[in-house]
Amino acid sequence: MTITSYNPADPDDLVVSVEEPGAEAVRSAVLRARAAQRGWLGAGAGARSAALGRIADAVDAHAGELAALIVREVGKPLAEARGEVARTAAIWRYYAQAPYAAGGEVHETAGGPGLLLTRRRPYGVAGLIAPWNFPLAIPSWKAAPALAVGNTVVLKPAPEATACALRLAELAVSAGLREDVFTVLPGGAEEGAALVEAADVVSFTGSTGVGRAVVRAATERGTPVQAELGGLNAALVLPDADIALAAEHIAAAVAGYAGQKCTATSRIIAVGAAYGPLKEALVKALAAVDDSVCGPVINAGARERLVGAVVSAVEAGATLLHGGAVPERPGWYVEPTLLTDVPAEHPLAREEFFGPIAVLHAAADLDEAIELANDTPHSLATSVHTRGLDAALAAADRLDAGMIRVNAPSSGVDFHLPFGGTKGASHGDREQGRAALDFYTVGRTVSVLPGGSL
Ligand code: NAD
Question: Which residues in 53-82 are b (16+ Cβ under 10 Å) and which e?
């Protein structure tokens, strides 16, 4: 079997084709990574810090080439691809400081002289499974903290992002990391499942169905696991908001990178008098979206699913306010689309579709808007658009989402803060920020008592 990855803007352009390595290759890679882990940890904080810093430098030094590869392999618009590369370098640089961070606390012993310590230690081999939509940033925000605290890493990228991940591995080797310290192994479900079976700690990002299976398999083995899954993110717009600005933010969150971000907005909830003006402003803002913002979706199957969902929603009574068609051009493009009157039980209102499509709902007041926003298991990010402090505070208190963003698009992530969803959108510890350092380590309590009388 072969893994292939095609350019979504030009489906005749084969970006990479590699032999699928198979489950046995995963098991051997994990064994080699386990053998390399003592040396990597034993090299000390200084060596790990310097190595991570050199990866950041290598990413910066190849920024143009990496952005072009992201555009070609996963169809991300150039400005966003450049942003992702800059963020990738910043992630490696941020975690390059982490090896020097305190790894525990000192306590008084209960009974007299000696030291009582807590200490965090790496697990061994971190098995990382990534999706395709942030082909450098997600592998990096998993690998960098795992490596910083002394684990070695085996990363299995999504097949659609194979070339980006292999290039990141080359840059890591050029920065002086041994291949067995940071291994990238291309593959699909077979390799992913084998990695979950073999690794000492597992971090997964991807769709909800696959993530649940990964969590079950890891938990069955007693392996610590975190999973960041799909979102069905809402934007709440209050009548006192700057409606034009809110519409601009929401259009970017709906159609930016063709809605293929786990934090993209797919439900817009207009409160009271906001509905009419917002509807108009959103149609205008979405009409202004061009290729430099939206781009194609990842493959033909994704496009069919999106267009099919729009057709079936309209058949079920929905009103199409904007878009909905497939443009006449090569590449897997879908028009940015806005619907309203979508029946509450229609899949477009209940499931993540991962495309530039959103549904506009009306709510009588803030309470109803919060209730609607919370009525989903996929609660990752919610945005609230208002000039009123009380509404913003109430929403921040009562919205059941991992990230609440006031007067900002739902689709923005700060890599130095914890990231994750609530309910079905997330499992286990948070990623990113310092939270990631905790996830990739396990606590030990150490008692050091005098060997004789002091
Ligand atoms: P996917 O679930 O299809 O694949 C994710 C990864 O899992 C890939 O590497 C894939 O090869 C691997 N995989 C597939 N079957 C497996 C199995 N049985 N065992 C182990 N691994 C397996 O997701 P995708 O299409 O690559 O990415 C899009 C999805 O990712 C969307 O649902 C999106 O919301 C989600 N996502 C979530 C976040 C977040 O942080 N919450 C971030 C980005 C993307």
Answer: bbbbebbbebeeebbebbbbbbbbbeebbb
Active site residue 228: yes
Q: Which two tokens stand for residue 243?
A: 């409606």
Any idea how long the chain is? 454
Q: What is the pLDDT of residue 453?
A: 83
Q: CB under 8 Å to 269, separation ≥6 — which residues?
A: 234, 235, 236, 237, 361, 362, 363, 369, 372, 373
- CA-proximal residue: ligand 1, atom 32 (nearest): 207
- Which residues, other chains included, contact 214 with Cβ-Cβ below 8 Å and sequence gap of 6+? 129, 192, 196, 202, 204, 225, 227
**Atom 15 (ligand 1) nearest CA:** 189
352 is catalytic: no
- If we measure between CA atoms, which residue out of 267, 274, 273 comes closest to residue 244? 274
Phi, psi of 441 (to 5 degrees): -135, 155
Helix (H) or strand (E) segment spanning residue 13: strand 10-19
Q: How far apart are the first and last CA of the chain?
A: 67
Cβ contacts of 35 within 8 Å, gap of 6 or more: 180
State both tokens at 310. Answer: 């729009």
Of the residues 73, 84, 160, 228, only one is catalytic, namely: 228
Residues 6+ apart with CB under 8 A from 439: 145, 201, 203, 224, 226, 428, 429, 430, 431
Q: Which residues contact 31 (CB under 8 A, 6 or more apart)?
A: none
Cα-to-chain-centroid distance, residue 203: 11
CA dihedral 247, 264, 321, 304 (to 10 degrees): 160
Q: For 167-182, what is each residue's pLDDT tens digit? A: 999 999 999 999 899 9
The runs of H, that is alpha helices, within 199-299 are 208-221, 243-255, 275-287
Q: Compute how many other C-beta atoms are within 10 angstroms of the C-beta atom of residue 393.
A: 12
Whole-number pLDDT of residue 418: 92
Measured distance CA(400)–CA(231) in Å, rounded = 12
SS (H, E, C) 422-445: EECCEECCCECCCHHHHHCEEEEE
For ligand 1, whether the C-beta of 127 sits within 6 Å is: no
Separation CA 140–CA 153 (nearest Å): 11
The strand order across the sheet containing 182-184 reads 182-184, 152-156, 125-129, 201-205, 225-228, 426-427
Alpha-carbon distance 130 to 126, whole Å?
A: 13
Which regions of the chain are under pLDDT 70?
none
Q: Which residues are registered as beta bridge partners of 17?
A: 4
Q: Which of 73, 164, 262, 294 is catalytic?
A: 262
Report the C-alpha gap between 82 and 79 in whole angstroms: 5
